[in-house]
Amino acid sequence: MRKKVAPLMLTAVLLSLVWLPACKSTSPEELKNSVEIVDIETKWVAKAYQPWPPKLILVPAISFRVKNVSSKPLNYLNFNAIFKFKDEKENLGDNFLAAIRKEPVLPGEMSPVITLKSNFGVEGKTLASFKDNPQWRPVVCRLFIQSKGSPHIFLGEYDISRTIDFKEPEPVGMEKKQGQKNP
């Protein structure tokens, strides 16, 4: 019986020696020094829209790409964006995204565009109503990265631009026929 246990124990020990280094978490310094955030774009996007009764909810969003500036492939990267009104302590909203999974970002390469949108925003009736909406105030995004069990590491704070990436659809059935005058 002892002869059967020894090979099983030896196999288990060897497998654990191979598996444990693969589970090692990345140090915060190593992770922060291996990524560069590039092609940053901030804007407001529509979360909800209904033409009647008029309602439009805009949320802040940030888009970027990750450049791998290390000598190892980057995989299993998670991002957390915390959106808040500028000079306020309370969060407006947030977004967590498990962004880079199956396809690693190889050294010197860049990831596809990653977009994080706040889950809460500002409500108005139409696009024009946001121009004078007192709730539509300056917002900042605090961006964090995390990988393989590492703590969340602060990457930077970005101002959200006042650009709105949304167009209201044209009214239906309002086209003029040729030769017809408005009443």
- CATH arch. level architecture of the domain at 39-164: Sandwich
SSE arrangement, N to C = HHEEEEEEEEE
Shape label? elongated
- Give the rounded overall mean pLDDT: 86
- CATH class of the domain at 39-164, please? Mainly Beta
Query: Largest sheet, if any?
Result: 5 strands, mixed
Uncertain residue ranges: 17-21
Concise overview:
The protein has helices at 2-22, 28-34; strands at 35-50, 55-68, 77-85, 93-100, 114-117, 122-124, 139-147, 153-159, 164-165.
Written description of the protein model:
15% of the residues lie in helices and 39% in strands. It has helices spanning 2-22, 28-34; strands at residues 35-50, 55-68, 77-85, 93-100, 114-117, 122-124, 139-147, 153-159, 164-165. The longest helix is centred in the N-terminal third of the chain and has 21 residues, at 2-22. It is built from two helices and nine strands, in the order ααβββββββββ. The strands form two sheets. Strands 1, 2, 5, 6 and 9 form a five-stranded mixed beta sheet that branches. The chain has a four-stranded antiparallel beta sheet with strand order 4-3-7-8, covered by helices on one side. The chain has a domain at 39-164: Sandwich (Immunoglobulin-like). The protein starts with a helix and ends in an 18-residue tail after the last strand. The protein has 183 residues and is an alpha+beta fold.
Architecture blueprint of SSEs:
Elements: H1 2-22, H2 28-34, E1 35-50, E2 55-68, E3 77-85, E4 93-100, E5 114-117, E6 122-124, E7 139-147, E8 153-159, E9 164-165
Parallel strand pairs: 1-9
Antiparallel strand pairs: 1-2, 2-5, 2-6, 3-4, 3-7, 7-8
